[in-house]
Structure prediction request, 145 residues.
Amino acid sequence: MSVAARKFSEELSSLIGKKVEVELSDGRTYSGSLLAISEGLDIVLEKPAELPGVYKLLISGSSLRAVRLVERMFDLKELADRLSKSFPGNVSLREDIGVILVMNRIKVTSAGVVEGSGPAADKVRKIYEDYLKEMRERQAQGQQG
Prediction:
């Protein structure tokens, strides 16, 4: 698999579980959580808002015009910047593998603190949780406005 194809596949995978809006070639649009996507761009949407009572909608890739992310992605750089304020000079961001290292012993991903313990890890966990809460609040405000 070429580097470009691998990157495209990674980007598609990053959309799974996120809220998307799908536009079809006939102009119809559907929005919901993206459950699955195939190499042929066939997709499965969970609970499309436009079809009450429908729990899963399968859409053929041949009828897709666009897939738009309508939910903000987790921003590791923003979290790393925030962690740097509490741990100056001790935070490194590895975007290539989706990891923030704090003091070379505490590992943080979009899923939270995945490695490390003790008071410093507890502080990192608290910063992560506060960041997540703020992100959700911003998302909710964006949906209201």
Strands lie at 19-24, 29-37, 43-46, 56-59, 64-69, 91-94, 99-102, 106-109, 112-115. The two ends are 42 Å apart (CA to CA). Residues 76-144 form a domain with the TATA-Binding Protein fold (CATH 3.30.310.60).
